[in-house]
Structures are given as structure tokens and as C-alpha cells.
């Protein structure tokens, strides 16, 4: 259903090389045309409601129990209907059908004139239910109900009516959303399950993720790794400087104690222990100074190029190493677990959560109303006593 049934816009005429005199558009003329279409739709709804009601009535009239009931209420009308109208049901219905077909072809002509659709013959395919409803055979007649719905939709879109907040509209909107959500969830879960199976059995998904997702982002990832190295070096090194110094000193002491050549220094008369301790401290200070300089250089902007190169080499070593089964296994498990978490989230019925939230809000509203009523009752009682 298209809202353009109600509007003739100047943009449309200009795009389709229409008459220049009409291209400017006349607001009053557009309003009149919209009113004409509104009246036409109102008449069609009136006829469709009468026609559908009469079809249901005539169908029920064939049952003996309904016939007897009507005969008891209005014998004259029942006999007249049974003799004059019921036998001519098809003929009378064809009169309605002729009106419906006339309106259908009129709208088709308007759609062709205004070039609403890409091809002139698209209209009957898009509004197929209108044509099928005009077939005067059995269940096809009840397709005219869809015509009523389509007209109401057009009126809603055009702004002539507003049914969005009515109970039927809320009901349809709610269960339409539930249906769409359930269907989309099933489709999504099936797709994710197929992807999981492909990942588990060594399909090309992992390789495609690496080649089409990760590698094109190589520069950004390397930049991020470099930034993280700089940030860690800058923020955390000062907190662990003393611990690193003690560790270096301990390791050097252990190494010197195990070195036999260094132990001979203690055999020097008078100054042996002093020389040994001095050398041990000097070596510890030199090693720590080297480590401290390296860490400070990592946190310096001057060595950004070196850090970037190191991160780039590390990135290539991780991703481009051939036959790295451990890496492939970790990537496969990570993707599989991630997809499983997504499936679990998809399986959560969001419409139930929304219903629970609405019920909770409704309960709170009613509770507030009851509390306010309970608070007002003592005041009213006091005033009555006074």
C-alpha cells in the first residue's frame, strides 16, 4: 500500500517530465485530490463491511438452527430473504464485485498516470489480494478483508486516521514483533551453528578472518601494541623499580658465588673482601642501569620507531608462522566459544523480558494508586467527622 495514492507531488512530475504547468504543484489541488481519495476509501470500506457482513450472514442462513432462530424473531423477513435474496446471492455479490473491480482499475490507472511503480503492470501483482478477493468463489471472498486492512493502512499513513494506540493495533504490533523476533532468532542460530561446524572441521573461515579482517588492520593493531608497550613501561615500571633492583642484585650475587675465579679475589691479603664487595656492587649497578635505561627508552617517544618495528615483527611471527597448530587451535576455540555466547544471547527471548518489564511497571503503577487511595481515606474520614 502506497501513500502516494493520496499525493501528487511536484518532485514526481519533474522527475518524469510532466506538464510544466502542473510541475509547480498546487497545494489546494493536492488537498482536494487527497480528500477525494479519502472519500473513495471511506465508501469502499463501507461497501466492503456491508458485503462481508452479508456474506457471513448468508453463510449462516443456510444452517437450519439459524433459520429457525430468525424465523422465530422475524418470520416475514426470513421468508422474504429465503425466497428473494438468498437464491440470488451470486448475482448480488457480482454487483459488489463490479464496484470493487471498477475501483481497482481506477487506482491502477492513477498509478500508471502518476508512475508510482517502475512498470505499469506491477500494480496488479502488488495488490493481488484485491483481484483474488473479487473472485466470487468460496474462500476467495474473505480476501476482501485484506482490502479493508490495506485501506485502513493507507488512511493511517496519510494521517486521516490514527489507530496506532488502539487495542487491536497494540495487539497486532506486539505479536508481529514476537513472530519476527522468533523467526529471526531461529535463522540466526542456524547460521551461527553452521559457522561453528565449519570452524570446528577446519573450514576456510579462520583463514578468511585472518586474511580479510586481521591483516588489513595490521597497522592499527601494531600501533595499538606499541602504545600499550609504551603505556605499560611508563606507568608500571616506577612501581617495580626497587623490586627489579633487588632481583638483579640477588641473581648477580648467586652467579658470583658460583664463579670460582671471582672467589679467588678474597685471597688477596687485606683488601680481598673489599675488592670482591666493590666489584659485586659495581656489576649490580651496571646491570641495573642497563635495564633501567632500556625501560626508560621503551617509554620514550624517541624510540617509537623501534617499538613499532618490534611490534610489527611480533605481529608477523604470531599470524604468519606456517603450520602453527597451537595458534590455529586457540583461534578456533576462541571463535567457537564466541559464537556459542552469541547463540546463547540470541536464544534469550527479549519479548518475554519486555513483557516482564511492562508487568512490573503496571504493578508499580497500581500499587502507587492503591497507596494513594489508602492515604486519602483517613483524610476523607476526618473531614466527614468534622
From TrEMBL:
Location relative to the cell: Membrane
Record's compositionally biased regions (Basic and acidic residues): 7-16
Start and end residues of each stretch annotated as Disordered: 1-27
CC terms in the record's Gene Ontology section: membrane
UniProt keyword terms in alphabetical order: Membrane, Transmembrane, Transmembrane helix
Alphabetical list of InterPro entries matching this protein: Volt_channel_dom_sf
Membrane-spanning ranges: 35-57, 89-109, 121-143
Topology versus the membrane: Multi-pass membrane protein
Protein name as it appears in the record: Ion transporter
Amino acid at each position: 500500500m502506497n501513500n502516494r495514492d493520496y499525493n501528487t507531488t511536484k518532485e514526481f512530475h519533474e522527475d518524469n517530465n510532466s506538464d510544466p504547468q502542473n510541475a509547480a504543484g498546487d497545494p489546494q489541488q493536492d488537498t482536494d485530490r487527497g480528500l477525494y481519495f479519502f472519500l473513495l476509501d471511506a465508501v469502499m470500506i463501507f461497501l466492503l463491511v456491508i458485503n462481508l457482513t452479508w456474506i457471513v450472514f448468508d453463510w449462516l442462513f443456510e444452517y437450519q438452527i439459524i433459520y429457525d432462530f430468525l424465523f422465530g424473531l422475524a418470520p416475514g423477513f426470513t421468508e422474504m430473504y429465503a425466497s428473494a435474496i438468498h437464491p440470488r446471492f451470486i448475482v448480488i455479490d457480482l454487483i459488489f464485485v463490479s464496484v470493487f473491480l471498477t475501483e481497482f482499475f481506477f487506482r491502477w490507472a492513477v498509478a500508471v498516470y502518476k508512475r508510482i511503480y517502475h512498470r505499469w503492470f506491477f500494480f496488479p501483482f502488488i495488490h493481488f489480494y484485491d483481484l483474488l478477493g473479487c473472485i466470487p468463489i468460496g474462500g476467495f471472498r474473505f480476501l476482501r478483508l485484506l482490502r479493508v486492512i490495506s485501506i485502513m493502512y493507507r488512511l493511517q499513513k496519510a494521517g486521516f486516521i490514527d489507530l496506532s494506540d488502539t487495542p487491536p493495533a497494540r495487539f497486532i504490533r506486539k505479536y508481529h514483533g514476537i513472530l519476527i523476533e522468533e523467526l529471526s532468532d531461529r535463522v540466526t542460530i542456524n547460521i551461527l551453528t553452521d559457522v561453528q561446524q565449519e570452524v570446528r572441521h577446519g573450514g576456510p573461515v579462520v583463514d578468511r578472518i585472518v586474511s580479510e579482517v586481521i591483516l588489513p588492520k595490521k597497522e592499527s593493531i601494531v600501533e595499538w601494541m606499541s602504545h600499550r608497550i609504551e603505556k605499560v613501561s611508563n606507568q608500571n615500571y616506577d612501581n617495580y623499580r626497587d623490586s627489579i633492583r633487588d632481583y638483579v642484585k640477588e641473581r648477580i650475587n648467586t652467579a658470583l658465588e658460583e664463579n670460582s675465579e671471582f672467589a679467588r679475589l678474597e685471597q688477596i691479603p687485606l683488601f680481598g673482601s673489599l675488592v670482591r664487595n666493590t666489584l659485586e656492587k659495581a656489576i649490580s649497578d651496571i646491570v641495573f642501569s642497563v635495564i633501567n635505561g632500556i625501560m626508560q627508552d621503551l617509554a620514550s617517544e624517541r624510540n617509537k620507531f623501534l617499538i613499532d618495528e618490534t611490534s610489527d615483527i611480533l605481529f608477523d611471527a604470531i599470524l604468519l608462522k606456517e603450520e602453527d597448530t597451537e595458534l590455529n587451535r586457540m583461534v578456533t576455540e576462541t571463535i567457537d566459544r564466541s559464537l556459542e555466547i552469541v547463540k546463547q544471547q540470541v536464544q534469550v527471548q527479549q519479548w518475554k523480558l519486555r513483557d516482564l518489564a511492562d508487568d512490573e511497571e503496571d504493578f508499580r503503577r497500581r500499587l502507587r494508586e492503591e497507596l494513594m487511595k489508602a492515604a486519602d481515606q483517613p483524610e476523607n474520614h476526618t473531614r466527614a467527622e468534622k
